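Marked as duplicate of an earlier ticket. Keeping the data here for the record.
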Amino acid sequence: MSLGRIPSSMGLDDLDVILPSLVEKGLPGNGEYLVAELDSGEHTASLIALLIWHGYFPMGGAGMLLPKLHKARCVLSPGRIHIGRKVRRRAKGFRLTVDTAWSSVVEGIQQYTFTSMKGDCWLSDELVSAYEAVAALSPRRRRGIAFHSVELWHIGTGELVAGEIGYACGAIYSSLTGFAMKDQFSGLGSVQLAALGCWLDRSGFKLWDLGMELAYKVELGAHTIPRAEWAIRQRDLRQHDVTLSSPVDDIHSDAAFLVCCGDTAAEEAPSTLPKPSKPSKKERKALAPEKNAEKTSKDSMNDPSCQATE
């Protein structure tokens, strides 16, 4: 894996000038990652906000900050999310909230989500602290970047059963990583994502950034775009002012209510239009001359001798 190092001595204002050209031309060695020192101080928090502003995905690993610039980004317009019958059925009995249990969501991710073995989670305590420190930055350094936790609760027990952390940059919301207690409830991850996507749409977000392409993201309706297209769209949408807040009441937080926004809802809704009644024998006799005239008219239109030339 080729890594482009960000020198700890480099000033943020200098990096602000360099990062756009790296987005346009690509990273050293045609790689996807930069690497920088990681701590919970203001410099790292400011660096994370700056990287997000320029379209990088602020991951971590091996005690370092590993900003990723995907060669192809998996994205979705929240209003075009695909939601099937099974997900809508499974959404009953759950509710969605935002920013009500950050620490619990982080704990769930670190416990249930891993790369190759249990405990192998790139979301370290140091990286979480750096994310949290972004909120305390000055407006100039924060650039409107806001980190969020998203929670899915089981209504019957009040238990947190799925969730994720992500961040908002203008009218773009990016999902970083999440967890779901799949052993207890089947399809929880899909329910949480479907409910979140619909809430993002209702909140005014124009683009949902899902990072790298995976099968379950494609099932939601996501697709990949090349880095150049991502840069164009990201630079436009980061200028917007959109806020992600929690649903205000039980109705709007109900996952079953939220997932009704999916683009399959209209397709699967039963038709309410009445079936046309059959004409009576008397009406059929009256219509016969009109049908014969209509047939003659159609036959003449299909006759080459009756067609106009241009």
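See parent ticket for discussion. DSSP finds 13 helices and eleven strands in the chain.
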